[in-house]
Write a structure and sequence with these properties.
Layout lengths: L1 H9 L9 H14 L1 H40 L2 E6 L15 H6 L4 E9 L6 E2 L12 E5 L3 H5 L1 E6 L4 H5 L4 E5 H6 L10 E4 L2 E12 L8 E5 H8 L9 E6 L4 H12 L7 E5 L4 H40 L1 H9 L4 H38 L7 H27 L3 H6 L1
Length: 412
């Protein structure tokens, strides 16, 4: 009787053993035994990790392109604003020769004066038509501003010296304004009417690199603006935009106030566009935050997918679990088995997802002629993130599997 009890005790589940190697082999065998189900389980993590790598890679690549463009503009642009204007001096505080004085500085490529006209009136493409009128921003610019700002005139031309000196009623429209007014070309010298005053359209602006506000506005010569609307106001003071050689912006910013007014340089503030770093950082930061949120959502979706598939697998393998328990497997053996399956599938899905994600980022970079930027830590962490997702997603299903009683499982 005692010997029988002893033999029975030796086969109790509490005395069973499961080595790590056996656990790994069993988990791999279970994955390979049901390849279709394993693939379906890994799809969620594959897409999640792949999307994560793509979003992070694109975020870093796009941020690098934004920083590159900002850096180029930062190193070649100076903005000048008058802070103590005096009357009866040409264009408010600037003189008629201000641009010539700045052009003499070594490192200056071009410069121009501009301001927003305070009183903008409804504009129409036909005289005496008020019902269809619209209000757009109206800017006063001199003949060299568009060159300094990097504007692109798709049709017509900019203002010349004749237009400026003779105070011509001519106007340049942005492509957006021209389209809204129904002006598609300049063949018949179309005109627009601002407050009933006619202005001949001589150019259509499609883009402006340094003054994007001009892309949705109208522009008239500075002399015409002063005749029609008066001198600039303190609310919209005149400004000068200076385009410099690469790296000369900071030096030109220090020299410009003295060049404009040797006796009162404090009347002007010249700011190198290097101060736009805060704007650049804000744009890049907001972009990165958006990509990170999308990446997190993708990972959560992957985790939910692998958890659901693992739960379904447990229901399908209830009889197998019961047989293992009846043959002596402990609860933590069952839990370890299913948990390791989830971890291995997550790791494999992470490897494939990160590889495909990197490939997609590289292809997009080649198509856009961008320099691809991917943090190496992201490519190293991504597969392990997949394993972590598999572990977290398989934790509850593995516990649930271990709680199945042998007798109940075998009855199903």
């Amino acid at each position: 009787m005692s010997s029988a009890r002893s033999n029975r005790k030796n086969y109790l589940p509490e005395n069973s053993r499961l080595s790590v190697i056996d656990l790994v082999f069993e988990s791999v065998a279970a994955i390979l035994q049901r390849p279709l189900r394993s693939i379906m389980t890994m799809v969620g993590t594959f897409l999640g990790i792949g999307t994560f790598v793509v979003l992070i890679g694109m975020s870093q690549t796009v941020s690098a392109q934004i920083s590159k463009q900002f850096n180029i503009l930062d190193a070649t642009q100076v903005n000048v604003t008058e802070v103590a204007p005096s009357t009866n001096k040409g264009i408010y505080g600037f003189t008629v020769d201000s641009d010539k004085d700045i052009d003499k500085l070594n490192g200056v490529l071009s410069c121009g004066i501009w301001w927003q006209v305070q009183e903008t009136a409804p504009v129409t493409a036909l005289p005496g038509v008020d019902g269809s009128s619209a209000i757009y921003n109206l800017y006063a610019i001199d003949g060299s501003l568009l060159k300094a700002s990097g504007a692109v005139i798709s049709q017509g031309t900019g203002f010349n010296q004749f237009d400026i000196s003779t105070h011509q009623h001519v106007i340049i429209l942005s492509s957006a304004v021209a389209t809204n007014l129904g002006i598609n070309d300049l063949v018949n010298a179309p005109a627009v009417f601002i407050g009933g005053l006619p202005f001949t359209v001589i150019g259509i602006l499609s883009s402006d690199q340094r003054l994007p506000a001009l892309e949705v506005s109208m522009m008239i010569p500075t002399t015409t603006a002063m005749d029609t609307f008066g001198l600039p106001s303190s609310q919209y003071p005149p400004q000068m935009l200076i385009h410099t050689k690469l790296g000369a912006a900071d030096l030109i910013a220090r020299q410009t106030p003295v060049a404009l007014s040797p006796t009162h340089p404090g009347y002007f503030t010249a700011i190198s566009a290097l101060s736009s770093n805060s704007l650049k950082n804000q744009v890049v930061g907001n972009l990165n935050t958006l990509f990170y949120i999308l990446a997190a959502i993708a990972i959560i979706i992957g985790a939910v997918g692998i958890a659901n598939t693992t739960l379904v697998a447990i229901l399908e393998r209830t009889s197998e679990i019961g047989l293992r328990r009846a043959l002596g497997a402990r609860k933590y053996h069952i839990a370890s088995h299913f948990l390791l399956e989830s971890i291995l599938m997550g790791l494999l899905a992470g490897l494939m997802g990160s590889s495909c994600g990197i490939l997609i980022v590289i292809l997009v970079g080649l198509a856009k002629n961008w320099t691809v930027v991917i943090d190496p830590y992201v490519t190293l962490i991504a597969p392990f993130a997949g394993a972590l997702i598999g572990m977290l997603a398989g934790l509850y299903p593995s516990i649930k599997a271990s709680s199945i009683e042998p007798a109940e499982a075998l009855r199903r």
